[in-house]
Amino acid sequence: MLKVDGKGYVGIARSLDTGKYYPVRVIFAEKQANVYLQHNAKLTLILDDESIGDSEEILAVDKRGGYWALYLDGLPGTDPTRTPSAARI
């Protein structure tokens, strides 16, 4: 289980409903991810699993039931040369 609560990460959020990608900054708090998009928009996501085992893709759901995948830079256990923001778009 990765310890990520309270730390900020940058990367990409992908809506699994629309397929669109968004640059984001994410702060985790237990089973919740506060996702900050451009223009001060904010999404609150509930993580599929509180323990982040596969840091390549983190799955979560918004309050409307929409599913999201998060691809983040700098998470513990990831390849530091991998850049999701460039590789996923």
> What is the fold named in CATH at topology level?
PH-domain like
- Name the structural class: mainly beta
Oligomer: single chain
Q: Which regions contain 5 or more consecutive residues with pLDDT less than 50?
A: none
Q: How many domains make up the 3D coordinates? A: 1
* Helical run tally: 1
- Computed over alpha carbons, the radius of gyration is 12 Å
Largest sheet: 6 strands, antiparallel, barrel
Describe the structure.
This protein is mainly beta and 89 residues long. It has one domain (8-83): Roll (PH-domain like), CATH 2.30.29. Helices cover 4% and strands 43% of the residues. It has a six-stranded antiparallel barrel. A hairpin with a 5-residue loop joins β3 (32-36) and β4 (42-47). The chain starts with 7 loop residues before the first strand and ends with a helix.
Short description:
With 89 residues, the chain is mainly beta.
Which structural traits does this protein have?
1 helix; 89 residues; PH-domain like; mainly beta
Fold topology:
Elements: E1 8-15, E2 21-29, E3 32-36, E4 42-47, E5 58-61, E6 67-72, H1 84-87
Antiparallel strand pairs: 1-2, 1-6, 2-3, 3-4, 4-5, 5-6
